[in-house]
Amino acid sequence: MESFIYYILDKFFENDNTNLLFNKLKQKNSAVIFDIGCYKGNFTINLINHFKKNKLNSYKNYSYFLFDPIPNLKKELINQNNLNYKYLEYAVDSKSSKKEFYLNQFYNSAGSSLIGIHYADRLWLNSRKIFMKIMNPFKIKNNFKTINVKTISIDDFVKKNNIDKIDLLKIDSEGNEYNILLGSKTTLKNKKIDMIYLEVLDNKNKYFEKENLIINFLKNYNFSLLKKDKLRLTSFLSDIIAYDLFFIKKR
């Protein structure tokens, strides 16, 4: 049931900019894609499906790195043996270490993060629990719990794995996106990232300060904001607001 709910919410309430990203990637015969906060891999699957729909096989030459520390996800990830992808059970952060991670037990994909923004928002928490109880009344709805996870920075991962370039960096970290960008300074400085597609999320009274911080941070590395879309469902019955932002590096 949870997988069905996730499919419905992802299909009808999330912003679908896959076609835009596909058009930016389709001319590349090879590419490296980082999917940070991959959950069950829907972002990567949707992107691949655009290549298949357009009868382009170049996606088979791409390298996909999927990051998410939520336990037991690996068995639910992409089931395509011909893809060059790796799943990494890390929370991506500003530096490599170990940290506490807020895990949403009643709906893993929403609010699970190194930053407990959703956990602290009682209106968001109670309204989503009621919704999940209506949709799946026979499942016990536990609250968040904290688990210990390994963290890694983009800079450390790129260096350890000798990655020359990230063609697309996608970030969906439920509020930790700025810290992730701070952990990619060297990679950005070395001009190893082409495009960044990220969700920016925070409390409503803090959001626009954070958005401006990220925009100005990326301007320092010659990135410009190409597109911005509000995530409508996030702000409904909550004190949280979120937008999807798409940045490209200026030539």
Can you give me a brief rundown of this structure?
This protein is α/β, with parallel strands linked by helices. Helix content is 33%, strand content 27%.
Description:
The chain has 251 residues and is of the alpha/beta class. The chain has one domain (2-249): Vaccinia Virus protein VP39 (Rossmann fold, 3-Layer(aba) Sandwich), CATH 3.40.50.150. Mean pLDDT is 89; it is low at 4-13. The protein has a seven-stranded mixed beta sheet with strand order 3-2-1-7-8-10-9. The termini are far apart. The chain contains ten helices and ten strands.
Strand-helix topology:
Blueprint: H1 2-12, H2 18-25, E1 32-36, H3 42-53, E2 63-67, E3 84-88, E4 91-92, E5 97-104, H4 117-120, H5 122-135, E6 144-152, H6 154-160, E7 166-171, H7 177-182, H8 185-189, E8 193-203, H9 207-219, E9 223-230, H10 232-235, E10 240-249
Parallel strand pairs: 1-2, 1-7, 2-3, 4-6, 7-8
Antiparallel strand pairs: 5-6, 8-10, 9-10
